[in-house]
Amino acid sequence: MTERGADIHRAFHDVERVPSSRPAVEFLRAAETVPAIAAYRSRLRAHLAPAAGETVLDVGCGVGTHAAAIAAERAAAGADGPVVGVDRPRMIEQAGATHGDAVRWLPGAGEALPLDDDSVDAVYAERVLMYVDDPVDVISEIARVRRPGGRVALFELDYASMVLGGDAKIADEVLEVVCGTVGQDRMGRTLGPLLTDAGVLVVDQTPYAMTIPPPVWAQAVRGPVEDAVADGRLDRERVDAWFAELGAPGAYPGSVTGVLVCGT
Ligand SMILES: C[S@@+](CC[C@H](N)C(=O)[O-])C[C@H]1O[C@@H](n2cnc3c(N)ncnc32)[C@H](O)[C@@H]1O
């Protein structure tokens, strides 16, 4: 069972303000096994398609797995060029320790990117905007650093689209709790209009339904639920009965839709 305080969403809002970054780091490593993540990333990379010498930026790069993979892919294809990852200092420290200097790791915030205007050819962010106070601030920074006509790819979950099995009433209550913890719970469907407002031409919006494997489920859903039980928003007995129902053979595993939006 996830301990109270290991709520992953709180860590992603600001990893500097939680007691330990370890649950967030472990969560990101476990999330790498979700098949839909590999699927949207392959499409995202095809859209960014950086030529040799072009600069790629990952906003909210987390532990750096994808940015490092892009750097390696470019090197293998003879299309080397700068890859930059920006995230909060704790994440950047972890990324650098794990992946070394094939990527330029920069501590910073999406709301104030530590990069010059028009300095990036291809920029992406994955599962970041749903955690920021105002996604417009980050999108306008992305538009500022992107050179005119540069490629943009954003992928965000739409937590309000989560499908939960078991008793419908408690499932709805849990959904409300999880959405409240995430913050921007309709981020996927909001990306296209926000990018358009920032002057980016949206060329594609593709939804991905993601099933939620047990280790990811334990933190994405169970963490906020345990917090809600502790402060009286959810009832322990009903929650336990619901979890038992979800553990039964044939129960629906849970899913959420994310949206990849590509622009130029
Ligand atoms: C769910 S994780 C995703 C990490 C990475 N993009 C991936 O796909 O594995 C969200 C990341 O966004 C970062 N983040 C949240 N708010 C941020 C902000 N305002 N500026 C920069 N990074 C932020 C978190 O620190 C965390 O690493």
UniProtKB/TrEMBL annotation:
GO biological process: methylation
UniProt KW keywords: Methyltransferase, Transferase
UniProt domain Methyltransferase type: residue ranges: 57-153
Keyword Transferase: yes
Domain of life: Bacteria
Keyword Methyltransferase: yes
GO MF, one annotated term: methyltransferase activity
Stored PANTHER family: METHYLTRANSFERASE
Listed name of the protein: Methyltransferase domain-containing protein
Source organism: Actinomycetospora termitidis
